Amino acid sequence: MPSKTRCWWCGDDPLYVAYHDQEWGVPLHDDQKLFEMLVLEGFQAGLSWITILRKRENFRKAFRGFDPVAIARFTKRDFERLMNDPGIVRNRLKVEGSALNARAYLTILDEGLTFDHFLWQFTEHQTLRRPAGTRENIPAHTAESDKMSKELLRRGFKFAGSTICYAFMQAVGMVDDHIESCWKYRKRR
After folding, report:
1. How many CA atoms lie within 13 A of 23 on its CB side?
2. Residue 118 CB partners (closer than 8 Å, separation 6+)
3. Active site residue 41
4. Catalytic annotation on 185?
5. Is 127:189 a contact under the CB 8 Å cutoff?
6. Which of 26, 113, 127, 166 is the most buried (most CB within 10 A)?
């Protein structure tokens, strides 16, 4: 039985392949999981995603299951604990930024919005797809990710630039950027 053709970036690492096949580009609507992915995308900045995937379970333990209420209450002692944890990416700005992101997330909820609704508004609550997806025509950011980034930053989020937002949008299925030769590519109707 021939193997499936996938997007170039996942290679043949079993962890990456599973992420590609089961998560990347699948629409996600769970507030806390969306928060987790946004924080992890911020930690990924300057690194490869496989680095984050390999550390994801450690991140989940260190960040208390990505519970925004718990993270928003992190103290200097928590930050020091995280900075001494070899199982995560130990970047002080990113670690401290996670608490700011949690507080900004909670403010959105306090306004009566779900994080899901807030984020998906930037794609009009649908998955965006480009015809004939190829490696060469996948952008680093779009008008939608620019708008999302601007609003997240305005609300106090850190590590939420447009490129990070676009990678996030791809990861959580707001954008379907599987290339045309990938078994997960869906033709537009």
Report:
1. 12
2. 108
3. yes
4. no
5. no
6. 166
- pTM to 2 decimals? 0.94
Spot the catalytic one: 9, 23, 49, 96.
49
Q: Are 119 and 103 in contact (CB under 8 A)?
A: no
Lowest-confidence region among 31-35, 40-44, 134-138, 152-156: 134-138
Q: Which one of the listed residues 24, 41, 120, 166 is annotated catalytic?
A: 41
Domains of the chain: 12-176 (1.10.340.30)
Question: Which tens digit of pLDDT belongs to each residue from 4-23?
Answer: 899 999 999 999 999 999 99
Phi/psi for 48 (5° steps) reads -90, 150
49 is catalytic: yes
Which position among 16, 19, 105, 120 bears the catalytic label?
19
The size of the chain, in residues, is 189
Phi-psi region of 127 (alpha: psi -120 to 50; beta: other; left: phi over 0): beta
